Amino acid sequence: MNGRLRVLRCIADPRFGGPHRLSFAIAERLQAEGIETVFLFGPRTKEPGPPCPFEHFHLRHLLFLRRRRPLLNLLAFLFWLPWNLLRIRKIVRSGRIDVVDVDGALNLVPAVAARLCRVPVLWCYNDHLPGPVQFVLLPLVARLATRIVVQGECLRHTRTASHPLLQQKAAVLHTGTDTTVFDPDRYGPEAGRRVREHWHIAPACPLIGTIGNVNPFKGHEDFLRAAARIKKRADDARFIIVGRRLTTAPGYWERLQQLTVELGLKDDVIYTGFCDDIPSMLAALDVFVLASICESCPNVVLEAMAMKVPVVATDVGAVSELVADGRTGTIVPPHDPDAMATAVLDHLARTPEQVVAMTSAARQRVQAEFSIDRIAYQQHTLYTALGRARKK
Questions:
Q1: Does the pLDDT at position 182 exceed 50?
Q2: How far apart are CA 109 and CA 287, in angstroms?
Q3: Does domain 5-176+371-391 have CATH number 3.30.70.360?
Q4: What homologous superfamily is domain 189-369 in, according to CATH?
């Protein structure tokens, strides 16, 4: 294929997080392979986060369904729909876009605009959709998408089995992580010590943490209940919750604060808010916990494994494809604080040699199967195939 391939990567959520960090890193690698990435985000926000290092655009009201003020949001979506379609068509045509890569099944407008321009659509189906929305939306996704990406073998079955066309177009592409950034040799004991000093945590205190935006899907209530059980066995343990407080879920934040007090954890749990130095935060932990009740393929699990931090993760989404239970971490049922607490205490009771053996195996697994270079290669293959098909 002659010339450089150009991809429009559409992420409706403008708040910086794992998908953005991973997308930027992949785009950097693809650039060296002749693929240019342009980004399309939702509206600009005042949320903290690094600027996008690539050409990018912002548009308002791209999603027709939101949990907060759903009716008002739907009306705004419909009002802005003609303008957004025209704007994206202009971006696609003037930018000579060859492939439109859409993140999330609810991110419908870029896919429609792409098909109007006769540009292939690679659509990542990573949402957790209510039943009625699935019934209406998924047939439309199946028709609009040229290829569909799901982030795990188990997800390919659960999310596409009832839609033959969706299943026919589906490909598995796990998430990945940059092991040169998430590297314990770069962020060693000194980085962890600085984090502990900043939050006034003694070096000898067991520190158990979870990382992710503070929303109900991340299972923070279960994490807190597990923390209360852990405190009964490890009185000096401290807990840290890393992630921004979302304006879209204010009631959930207040509920967590109340639960923290009710469980007697007010002096033991730290809420850090947004953090842009995740490797240092992981370096400070004795155990990382993913308490989520709903996920696709959580990148933060791989980041913890790459940093050689013992992992306890709930069995949601593709977690069982990332973590080899008992060998590179521990998998527990979702909504089970007792199992979560027991797994954390088991990790804390391991000898240093046992910890090294498990965490070294975890990092090796990430390097072999989930490195960002491997994921970028798979992404490159998908983009190139779609670009070639368009130019025939």
A1: yes
A2: 41
A3: no
A4: Glycogen Phosphorylase B; (3.40.50.2000)
